[in-house]
Amino acid sequence: MFSMYRFSAPVFQRSLTNLSTYLDKIEAYAAEKGLCCSQFPDK
């Protein structure tokens, strides 16, 4: 039996994994450049 969960969960999981990797790279770049999160606007 097929369900929406079975089709959508892997897509969301992959998207969140990609987002996590992207945010890790951003964090490493900011640390390398000596940037602090308080220097960035909220929006």
Helix content: 55-70%
How large is the share of residues in beta strands? under 5%
Output the structural class.
mainly alpha
Mean residue pLDDT: 87
DSSP summary: helix tally = 1
Number of strands: 0
> Helices and strands, in N-to-C order?
H
InterPro entries: DinB/YfiT-like
What does this molecule look like?
With about 45 residues, the chain is mainly alpha-helical. It has one helix at about 5-35. The model has no long low-confidence stretch (mean pLDDT about 85).
Brief rundown of the structure:
The protein has one helix spanning 4-33.
Task: Set down the secondary structure blueprint.
Blueprint: H1 4-33
Using brief descriptors, characterize the structure shown.
43 residues; mainly alpha; elongated
